[in-house]
Q: What sequence folds into this?
């Protein structure tokens, strides 16, 4: 007896995507006739049969939404999950959460598992490694299989779907403007590599504010943290440079708190020597000493909006145009930027 063959095995045999195999077996004209015939012949030889159990599940309502996020320890993503769950529960749905741990392969595996009849639709925040690779074939496969999904926070313009984002450019601008209005002139930025779209957009806002207030753009003040290395060591080295900045804008709460600690360890005062502002208003910002000024991302609201977008699409009889919901940020001022103006 020949071993049971899968779509994944067929795709590997021909060096094509699972989506290409699926379309070939459905005799789609999107695939060349030669490729269709070769794939169909191979599938027939090995007695390929669709997973009838998964197909049956797909054609039934599970009343479950799948959520795939990069990490659970981040305050922002925990708020997103809370928002998704509250909105989903109000409308009769439950929630299943998976973590990609910023891994492309883990993200691919999570989407494949959830899409195999476990959930009605998905909410996803794209992993850093996926953005770095620029490989979004697994999302195209969801589209090809007719599985609705919403991208939240970390999105990709090339992927046609509903999206929920914050106004990262405006958030970066307002954070930098706040520092300038508090007397700061040499404002550094602690950020991630540019392929992380939210950080890149916050940098755009930072640069926009510097230009508007006629402050020079100094590339040496933009420090891109490598998450695969010692984050505390990198930020400490940056703070300990001889010609240190008078303010730091960090793209997340962890970087802001780490900078705060490094500044104090050097014997400098926050905010009078170096003011600090971060993104995401979590417990760390509340209970740091001094408490950290932040740009609130409203993760809970993003989760609510994402869940409602997804459920609306699941329950609509029409194929409505995709929507992008933009959530504004809010500045929360605390001691870390309350400088004694000179």
A:
């Amino acid at each position: 007896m020949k071993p049971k063959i899968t779509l994944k095995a067929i795709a590997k045999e021909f060096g094509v995507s699972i989506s290409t195999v699926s379309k070939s077996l459905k005799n789609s004209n999107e695939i060349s006739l030669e490729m269709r015939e070769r794939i169909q012949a191979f599938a027939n030889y090995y007695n390929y049969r669709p997973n009838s159990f998964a197909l049956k599940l797909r054609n039934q309502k599970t009343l479950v939404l799948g959520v795939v996020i990069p990490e659970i320890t981040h305050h922002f993503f925990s708020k997103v999950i809370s928002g998704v769950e509250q909105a989903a529960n109000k409308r009769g749905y439950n929630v299943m959460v998976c973590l990609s741990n910023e891994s492309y392969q883990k993200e691919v595996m999570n989407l494949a598992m959830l899409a195999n009849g476990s959930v009605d639709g998905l909410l996803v925040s794209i992993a850093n490694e996926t953005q770095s690779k620029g490989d979004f074939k697994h999302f195209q496969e969801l589209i090809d299989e007719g599985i609705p999904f919403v991208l939240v926070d970390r999105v990709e313009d090339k992927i046609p779907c509903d999206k929920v984002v914050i106004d990262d450019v405006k958030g970066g601008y307002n954070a930098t403007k706040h520092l300038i209005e508090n007397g700061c002139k040499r404002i550094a930025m602690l950020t991630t590599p540019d392929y992380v779209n939210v950080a890149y957009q916050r940098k755009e806002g930072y640069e926009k504010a510097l230009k508007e207030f006629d402050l020079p753009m100094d590339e040496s003040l933009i420090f891109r943290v490598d998450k695969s290395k010692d984050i505390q060591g990198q930020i400490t080295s940056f703070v300990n440079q001889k010609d240190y900045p008078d303010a730091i804008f960090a793209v997340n709460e962890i970087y802001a708190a780490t900078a705060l600690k490094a500044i104090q360890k050097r014997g400098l005062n926050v905010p009078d020597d170096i003011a600090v502002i971060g993104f995401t208003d979590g417990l760390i910002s509340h209970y740091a000493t001094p408490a950290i000024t932040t740009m609130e991302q409203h993760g809970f609201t993003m989760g609510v909006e994402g869940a409602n977008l997804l459920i609306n699409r699941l329950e609509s009889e029409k194929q409505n145009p995709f929507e992008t919901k933009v959530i504004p940020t809010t500045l929360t001022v605390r001691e870390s930027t309350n400088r004694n103006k000179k």
